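Researcher: Next entry in the queue.
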Amino acid sequence: LVPKPTVNSACSQLVRLERHMQASFPYSKSGPASDDYAYHRVRPALEELRDTIVMYLDHFTHYGLVGASAQHTAGQPPNALSHPAEWFDLLAQATGVAMRMPKWDKPENNDIRRDTLRQLADGWLRAIMAAARWTEEGHIVGKDMLSQWAQQLDHFSTASGEDSLFQPAIQVFQQSFGRNYARALGRMSLGSTA
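Model: Structure for this entry, 194 residues:
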């Protein structure tokens, strides 16, 4: 039997695959190229990286916090993640890796990166909704942790160059944890009344 992945093993695998992707670039005196030739050399590694990120998102959504209290019954695996921090650690690591995927000269060659970011933005949304349900069940999440998540989410939204990808996650975060989101970013959020 193969053991179920942990957040640490997932993050280690993503780092390994990112290194493999970087090593796939053809040698060039001027550094990594962004032309068609380089894209076709790197594409298999990019696809493997994207597929692995999606696999971990699916795994931790299925066994993780989403529906955690309803899923843990006799004969089913216990919750793979014991705290939302684990989920957000994986999301931050995976999103950072996706942000470092190369940008190519031809717009259509950026589809793998864009698709990966879209999947991750959806993962952020699901994690935020799960964390909100988790707190509604009486669990506590510290202000510092919420601020860290808000800063990461804002950073990824801005750095992606496609703000609309992360907008649903930002809106749900503001609705669920509004004051902490505003404080983390040093401004008042749209949904905040304080």
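Model: Confidence is low (pLDDT under 50) at residues 66-76, 187-194.
Researcher: Noted, moving on.
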